[in-house]
Design goal:
The chain is mostly helical. It contains two helices and no strands. Helix content is 67%, strand content 0%. 0% of the residues are buried.
Length: 51
């Protein structure tokens, strides 16, 4: 059975400005390589247990 596709409404005005601000700040607020390595290490441990 096919899943219904919901079309995202167009964002305008103040909501558009908020959206753009959030998107632009998320591009600069990256996690450190050390933290990323720790996260991937934990994920790999969990996946190894489930194998």
């Amino acid at each position: 059975m096919a899943t219904t596709i919901k079309i995202t409404p167009v964002v305008e005005g103040l909501e558009s400005k908020k959206f753009n601000t959030t998107i632009s700040s998320s591009k600069t607020n990256k996690i450190s390589e050390e933290k990323k390595a720790k996260i991937f290490s934990l994920v790999n441990k969990v996946l190894a247990k489930n194998s």
